[in-house]
Structures are given as C-alpha cells and as structure tokens.
Amino acid sequence: MTQQHLFIDFEFTMSQSKGNPSMFRPEIIEVGVVSVIDEKIYDTYSSFVKPVLFPKLTERCVGFLGIQQEQVDQGIPLAHLVELLNMYMSFGPTKVVTWGNQDIKVLRNNCRYSNIECPIKERERDLSKEYQRFFGHKNQSGLWRVLEEYGSKGIGKHHRALDDALTTYEVFKAIEKDKAYMKPTKQPTLGDRVDFSKILSHLA
C-alpha cells in the first residue's frame, strides 16, 4: 500500500520575554499541512488556530510572526485541528515529517491540556536531525538556509505555516536524492564479470 508523507508545520504563541517563563505554555496559532502521495502533492491545508490558555498574543509574537490578533480570534479551535489531522491520517499508512521536534511536542502538550487524544501516535520523522546526521553537522541548521545550500529558495514567506511545510517538502526531496546517490551499489560477482560460456566453448 502506498505510504503518505504528511509534512506539518505549526506556528506557536510566544511569551513576551525570551526564555520560557514557568507559567507560559506555547499554543498552536497556525497550521500548514502538505499531503504527499506517490511523490506528488495530493492536498494542502492552511488555517489559523485559536489559542485558549493565553488567548492574547504578545507584542513579541506579533512582531516576530506577523500574525495579528484578529486572525487567531477567527481561527479554528484545537478540536477542529485534531479532527483535520485525523482525516489526513485516515488516508492510509502515514509518516509525519517535520523540521525539528517542537511541532509535534507542542501539539501533544496542547492536546493534553485540552483532554483531547493526540492524532499522531508514532514518532515523527525529524528532517532537521536527519540532515544534521547525514552531513555530520554539530549544530541544527535553519530550514530555509538548508534549502539555500541546495541552490533553491524557500517557498512563500518564512514563519508562515503552509509555506514552511512546503519548504520542508522541498528539503525532503533534496535529502532523499542525496541519500539515493550516496547509497552503495551492489558489488558485481565473479559471474557478472566473466562470461563462463565463452571460456567453456574454447575448452570444448
């Protein structure tokens, strides 16, 4: 059965000051999803999501992401987002792909706070870690910088969920191509190198 790759990117609320104040909990405020089946984009989805624990966006969050309070106020609730992800997961065997491990971590935390079952049960495929291991980098690289290293530019605007999900898919294709190129080829056997039929005909 064909496997679906589901590229997911979330944008989160941010505290006013850097770091992670003890009372603050990041919440999803934008979702971008790219469904890829048979190596082709099957569907995409984008929406703002309404936060619950900290419904008012901080100035730092608005300034960094460019997302406005009015947009998240009209966003879908977390329960709707979970239903949507469950729908995508029902398409068949699915591997979720993200850039970094924060997206699914925050999703699971948000679901736990809201007493909703998280739709993603298995561990996601963290493309940033794969890239880091594959090229032997010590530090994690930024998504758009990695694509620029491949000679391409990110899609749309950085830190917009769907644009980042689409850019993750582009990096995924580039890394998969590199992996296929680096995969060792099968060593030829003696039978592949020598035509024994010709040798036997000379001896006959």
Automatic annotation (TrEMBL):
- The signal sequence is none
CDD domains reported in the protein's UniProt record: ERI-1_3'hExo_like
Transmembrane in keyword set? no
NCBIfam families per UniProt: PRK07748.1
Identify one Pfam family in the record: RNase_T
Q: Which domain of life is it from?
A: Bacteria
Database matches in SUPFAM superfamilies: Ribonuclease H-like
UniProt keyword annotation of Nuclease present: yes
Q: What is this protein called?
A: 3'-5' exonuclease KapD
Q: Which is one GO molecular function term here?
A: exonuclease activity
List, alphabetically, the SMART domains matched.
Answer: EXOIII (SM00479)
Q: Coiled-coil region(s) at which residues?
A: none
Keywords, ordered alphabetically? Exonuclease, Hydrolase, Nuclease
Residue ranges annotated for the Exonuclease domain, each copy included: 4-181
